[in-house]
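Pipeline run #58 for the internal structure catalog. This entry was flagged by the ingest filter as a single-chain record with no existing model, so it goes straight to prediction. Upstream metadata was stripped on purpose; only the residue string is passed forward. Reviewer on rotation: M.T. Logging verbosity set to normal.
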Amino acid sequence: MKWNHSVPWEITIEAPWPPSVNKYWRAFQNRMYVTQKGKEYKAHMRKYLLLQLDARDLPLFPKPMKLECGIEAYPPDKRGRDVDNIQKVLLDSLTGIIWEDDVQVYKVSAEKIYQEGDKNYCIVTIKEME
């Protein structure tokens, strides 16, 4: 897939529910690292997104593109979750797949939506900033 940089691009993806921040990252000797569970989620996310996107050139949004991201989070249950922690894991897990580096994301909006039924995912809309 090639990009025409004269036109702002936008995609919407469905992402599996992310693990908690504490299960995704750990601290060791004053350094943060991605845990095994975090690596497994990121690998799962890559396979999951490749099926949706049918893309061959990754990341989809290369540097120096500036991006904005909207997240609709549909939690699996009614437990309280910080929306900023949900977005931290999602943004990190999309690195190398959707964008080269999550520092490309300049604007984020996130919302938790509690609904009855089988919910356990996030809808993420990413677009190039004009």
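catalog note: Confidence is low (pLDDT under 50) at residues 1-5.
catalog note: The first helix runs from residue 21 to 24.
status: ready for reviewer M.T.
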